[in-house]
Each structure stands twice: as C-alpha cells, then as structure tokens.
C-alpha cells in the first residue's frame, strides 16, 4: 500500500507542471492526452480492479473454483509488473476516457481511488482468507481469473505501467513547446 500511495501522490504532484490545455493536448488523433490517461487510472481502479476484488470478497461472490491465470497473467505476477510495451486499446467510447474538465477533477478522482484502495485494503485484513482466494475473470481475458488480492495488487502495477506513457506524453509536450 505504501508504494501505491507514493505513486498516486506522485501523479497528483506532477499535475502542477501542466496547464489544462497541455493536459488535453493529444500527440495524434489515435492517442490519449495526458489528461485522458489521468482519468483512465482512477476509472479502471474504481470500475474494474477494485470492483472485481470486492466481487471476489463478497459472500457468494467470485467463482470458488475459478479459472486460472493466462500465460500473460502468470508473467505479470511473476515479474511484479506489466511488460514495458505500449498497450493499445480500441479507440471507442468504451475504452477512451473523455478529456478532463479541470485539474481539480483529476486530483479528486485520484484521491477517490486512493481512498477506496485504503478501504478495500483494510477490509482484506478482516476477511476470511478463503474468500480472498475466490476469482473473477479479467473482462478482456488478458490476465485470466484473478483473486481479490491479485486484483488489488494489479492497481499499483497499472499505475506504475502508465508512468511509461506519461514519460512519452511529457516528451511530446516538451517537443510541442519547443516547436511553439
């Protein structure tokens, strides 16, 4: 949880460097802006990873037998991180976050995700370990079936993975500023 707090606070501190216009600037039509990436992080935390962790922990939730992890799922957990490659999702409304309305919106969403991480992390301490082993399958089947602890762990890995995208977008913004 300490690593997640550190990285989450890092994202919030970094927002001071950007104007809203910079946060909304896209390198190309098919790529996300920095602001869209910022919205993606808490959105996927709250609506995917933590939702599935809670589903696993709920009485009668998850799948007790569960399926297993895919090869990619095993690799991610063995490495403790996503592969350092660009992952492109389809450019449609289901996956593409909107542009941010304000920097305050981004801070509020990141803080909401951080608060929920603390709440769910605390609830995992007081739950029957057997319920923590129930599994829910990744919707895109990318990682296969993960248990509550794995879904919870996935959040920090996901935030860390997007630091690579943030570096690319920072470089884009610097180049765009130089070209004026």
Automatic annotation (TrEMBL):
Gene3D superfamilies: dinb family like domain. It comes from the Bacteria. This is DinB-like domain-containing protein. Residues 14-165 form the DinB-like domain. The lineage of its organism: Bacteria, Bacillati, Bacillota, Bacilli, Bacillales. InterPro entries: DinB-like (IPR024775), DinB/YfiT-like (IPR034660).
